[in-house]
Amino acid sequence: MFLDRVKISIKAGNGGNGSTSFLRNAMTAKGGPDGGEGGKGGDVIFKATQSLNTLYDFRFHKKFIAENGENGSKKLKSGANGKNIVISVPCGTVIIDAKTNKVIADLNEDGMEFVALKGGKGGHGNAYYKSSIKQTPHYSQTGEITVAHEVILELKTIADVGLVGFPNVGKSTLLSCVSNANPKIANYPFTTLYPNLAVCEVKGQTFVVADIPGLIEGASEGQGLGHYFLKHVERVRLILHLVDISQSDGRDFINDYKIINSELKKYSEELVRTPQIVVFTKVDLLDEKTLTERLNRFNSNVGESYICISGATYQGIENLKLLTLEKLSKIPKKPPLLVEDYDFDKRDYSSLQITRDDDGSFVVSGGKIDNFIRGVVLSDTRSFAYFQNRLQEMGIIDLLKEKGLKNGGIVKIKDITFEYTE
Ligand SMILES: Nc1nc2c(ncn2[C@@H]2O[C@H](COP(=O)(O)OP(=O)(O)OP(=O)(O)O)[C@@H](O)[C@H]2O)c(=O)[nH]1
Ligand SMILES: [Mg+2]
Fold first, then answer.
1. Of ligand 1's atoms, which has the minimum distance to the CA of residue 214?
2. Does 96 lie in the same domain as 12?
């Protein structure tokens, strides 16, 4: 089975919490704060590798979670950072944010890495907050909590040459003639159900050939298997357009040629601009006279140059390899997709809303609060005092007062509900 599109879920590790702790031992009854820092969460990293060529491994494994950072602890001990998770994908994998459908990375080279999600930051321990005016901070910061995201992995085969044509015209046969590949070959349409890649060597140089499942009329609209696989042709530099000139399946070969080109064009304007070599196959099945007649008809009807081959007698195969190499030397490699810097979490750190609940309490919400609340561990009355001071500094108390908050009023901020006292 060949799998070239999957949806998976990824999540970076949470940051570890900072610790609130004070040095206590026989010598120091009242030591200073010694709560250590929380560790950073692990990143989610994708890595392209040549050793994979389908997304098959993702069939059952769809959740990837990097390790959380450890919490800080006493004696200024920082929590360990969470381990990154490295997800190996085949070269040519495009990563798409499932929510926005935006391409966020194009891993088109072996070894290429992409950090899709950064681990959450660790929280500060209370030792971090010690200052000349605050000798004994009783608060620490929680680690950053990360969220899971869904991404689509889409494999776009990276080959130099794509073999394109109707089913049964001899594409897989040609692949087996020019490489060590052993694709399934049979005298019925749609023998090839997924692209086969193989390396062809000519004069000490190599290029990669992709044998694509057969296309039929309407392929660009989803007929047959074509639509599904045309994306694998998108990135080839050269198309070998195979046409069965023996007409062994009873179709007119010139018509075949035109239909395939029109399907390529319908799929994308760029595909039709990809250079082609027209390859007439199965010439061994025709006598001299019929072959000449058909070639003449092609010349006057279409007028493109072509090459004749036979997978049965190997006629023309060597010439085709040389011509392919020569053409490729003049066509630059396709650049990776242009991907802008992408941020999954366009986090909102500034919005702030104050609303009233039915019971008259004041509810404070918004991105500014989410970020702030992260920095607060309400462990005792002293940390609560810090919390109120910060609300004051951020101007939130003033805003609440503008909205009518009075002494004794109830304020709700996330999970915290408290009575306001002046
Ligand atoms: N006589 C002759 N038969 C050929 C030639 N090339 C292919 N065939 C035969 O044509 C049939 C189809 O060949 P394949 O290579 O499987 O064709 P394909 O284009 O890969 O077909 P799909 O994968 O179904 O799209 C097989 O029976 C081959 O043996 C050729 O040059 N001469
Ligand atoms: Mg085939």
1. 25
2. yes
